Amino acid sequence: MTSRRDFLTITGVAGAGLVLALRLEAKPRPGDAPASDFRPNAYLAIRPDGTALLTVPKSEMGQGVRTTLPLVLAEELDLDWSRVELAQAMPGPDFQHLGTGGSTSVSTTWTTLRTAGAAAREMLVAAAAQAWGVPMAQCRTEQGFVLGPNGQKAGYGELAEAAAKLPVPKAPRLKNPAEFRLLGRPTLRVDGPKIVVGKALFGLDTRRPGQRFAAVLRCPVVGGQPKAWDETKAKAVRGVKAVVKVPTGLAVIADGTWAAFKGREALAATVTWDEGLHQDFNSKDLETRMRAALDGPADVARKAGDAGAALKASARVIEAEYFFPFQAHATMEPMNATVQARADGAEMWLGTQAPNTSQERAAKAMGLKTEQVKVNVALLGGGFGRRSGTDFSTEAAQVAKAAGGGPIQVVWSREDDFRHDQFHPATLHRLKAGVDGQGRLAAWSHRIAGGAVLRSWLEGHKSPGQAETEANGAHDIPYDIPALEVAFAEVRVPVALGWWRAIEIVPNVFARECFLDEVAHALGKDPLQFRLDLLGRRGKVKVGRDEVDITRLRRVLELAAEKAGWGRKVPPGHGLGIACHAYDARTYLAEVAEVSVEKGDLRVHRVTAAVDCGIVLNPTGLEGQVEGGIAWGISALSSQITFEKGRTVQEGYDTFPVLRQPDMPPVDVHVVASAEAPSGMGEPPVPVCLPAVLNALFAATGKRVRRLPLTPGDFA
Amino acid sequence: MPAFQLTVNGRRRSVDVDADTPLLWVLRDTLGLTGTKFGCGQGICGSCTVHRDGKAVRSCQVPIKESAGSAILTIEGLSKDGSHPVQRAWIEEDVAQCGYCQPGMLMTAAALLAANAHPTDGQIDDAIGEHICRCGTYPRIRKAIHRAARGGAK
Asked: Which of A2, A222, A405, A506 is most buried, by CB atoms within 10 Å?
């Protein structure tokens, strides 16, 4: 083969601040694949037997990328979906910026993957046309075959070798969505059949020859270190092989997980900690600091007009304070990573949203060059942002390096997972609305105080974009308010912070949409009509660096309201609440919740969602994400992490409740048909759920909840 | 001399482990059956559910000494080829998202249907309410159990 190369680089800044670059590149390396395979770029190979191997450049954590992204390739390539196999992308020359987060998987790969598929298809058609001596334009493709004008038919496998010799087209023709055969129809999750027989492999299912298991005894106080310990009893536990010191604590290495846990327990009974600087850290004092920060300097995330002056000039000012607590990710699969240190490098197996960053940081921890570490990305037993962190993989690399020998799987217990999460930070919100003499909303101020996730991600550095990132969901408030100011006052916290499902948008939209509801009620306006009036009919409006299409937002609001029967008479004790958001100005969502209070508990009877996420790629996947996002949102009303004496109070699902089957309401999903480019669905359903439910609770009970988690006193 | 004898998925196994070792770790680490998942080790989330002598149990809470002589069924043994009605219904309803908690859910669903061929929503809530799915697949779990109860019909 010749050295054909075709670069196509797409760089976008994800909502989560991740920079993503994907490229299409034909760079066959010796030994990569049989020469008879057709491998026009890093995403696909067609074998002589006609099967296709598609490479998934995103991590699967339940959001469906291993189904949706290959579907995009298969669509443009006209593949037989039943003859597609998947490979998971690995960090390396072809994939230098793998990262999954911010609901950006679809929006950032859409054009790249379509182009990759379409280019390959054109090459296969060209190979067939040459062989048959007919013009390309007279050939078409169907289900893995090229069909000629005179009944000729050739499978992609037969054409693979000839196609591989042709130049890669730079600008292949992409299908018109009307021509789609796979996209837009319900497609079942590709990993479903393996999941239901227990053969789907998550990081924790990694089993390598000679593998050992490790549990790390870490100080429950962040930054604390073991001062003195006695290894005798730990080493007396059957199966325990060694105890090694690592930067995060003491690793107990054993021939099984249980022995590692038992050995660690024996070791814990002997350890004396130097608890370090943060042993007094607690949620109560932090809240006092957050409240003080609301009165201090803040970084402005968005400013329009002079909100201060407009508030002063207002005929009426409405003011409220909202609080959102620390949250844990609580993925079902606890953190884990398996690392093998070898003479010439290392290999790791793990579920991660950040394969390249994990590779770089593990290499650094082991004193290796990045390319000396091979990273195998397993399925993620939940990600939700937690597995964007590299703390657990770096630690596993440190354990493997300290212990030497064969592969070691570092397993976190559930208690470890809660104690040492990269928490979503608590935030305190002060909102002010100024109403003019005509009863119009003339001024809006939203000030947020709390920890900065972005700084934690950047390992302590403050990015110029910090305020905008932390105020996401607040600064892009879509309503037409003449004077507006949104600002973020950072409060430093000692614990590691991480993005959660739907990131900072959850607390910010919770505060924004609940407070807006308060204002509507204070002015005697219907909450739906109030929102529609404030949105106006402005078309596309610039909000910060994004452009929000007000027409799309109005449509989902109106659709959700119509389908939920907004304004109808509800049963006694019931209430309806509504909220909306344009998620990163890409996915438009509105939800209406119907709730009541039953036996002193909040009962969500139904959530009606209306979605505009552009072209729908897989309706089954979309509905699942809406259902799951709403489950996450309702769950978020009841959970919190608090700190006392530098430690988390919660360390299990008993004290950090997660929504269960009996409390899951029916969810109705209504989709706006759209020709816009497709956008992500993993996170957007979450943020609007909280205010929709709490606004409904207000409608049902007259009680306004401004502080989470809910407590029974909120609606007694 | 192997310490404990048990039958796992129809096969007699001998395991030489400490008596307090939870069945979960015997399955995962000693026998290599990783389909049974570790979720909390606290008996709260249900990810580790298997059948012991036909009943759904939390394998993280069952020491091996209490399982000696028992017949254990794990997700790998629920059917030979993924054809158990709950497995088929799970695929057809596209239940799983990340999939991690699903083996436990399936084992509970299979035990529920074995005891009650046509469970009501309330009975499904009671059984599945003992589990946690962080992805929120609950609406489809309910649909899938009803579908399995109908013999696969939608």
From this structure: A506
Output the pLDDT for position A33.
53
* CATH code 3.30.470.20 for B4-77: no
Structure tokens at A286: 């932090």
Mutate to test the interface with B, among A191, A197, A409, A618 (most CBs of B within 10 A): A197
Closest Cβ opposite residue A198 in set B40, B45, B75: B75
- pTM for this predicted structure: 0.95
Residue B129 is nearest to which of A629, A653, A660, comparing CB atoms? A660
State the nearest Cα–Cα gap between B151 and chain A, in angstroms. Answer: 17
Q: Where are the domains of chain A?
A: 9-187, 203-276+335-411, 283-327+422-715
- Per residue, what are the HEC states of A153-179? EEEHHHHHHHHCCCCCCCCCCCCCHHH
Nearest CA in chain B to A208: B32
Nearest by CB: B136 against A197, A256, A632: A632
Q: What angle do CA A506, A286, A291 make, to 5 degrees?
A: 75
Calculate how close chain B gets to A652, using CA atoms only, in Å.
Answer: 7
Which two tokens mark A325?
Answer: 């607590």
How close, in Å, is residue A399 to chain B by CA atoms? 20
Per-residue pLDDT at A598 = 87
Domain B85-149 has CATH 1.10.150.120: yes
Chain A residue with CA closest to B18: the answer is A238
pLDDT at residue B152, rounded to an integer: 82
Pick from A327, A693, A295: nearest CA to A510: A693
ipTM confidence score: 0.98
Question: Which residue ranges of chain A lie beneath pLDDT 50?
Answer: 1-31
Q: Is A312 left (phi over 0), alpha (psi -120 to 50) or beta?
A: alpha
Chain B residue with minimal CA distance to A259?
A: B21
Token duo for residue A171:
């600008």
> Does domain A9-187 correspond to CATH entry 3.30.365.10?
yes
Put the strands of the sheet holding A52-56 in their side by side order. A38-41, A44-46, A52-56, A84-88
**Minimal-distance CA residue of chain B relative to A414:** B40
Closest among A526, A523, A590 to A554, alpha carbons compared:
A590
Distance CA A495, CA A492 (A): 9
CATH of domain A283-327+422-715: 3.30.365.10
From residue A619, how far is each of A148, A613, A644, B142 by CA, in Å?
33, 11, 45, 19
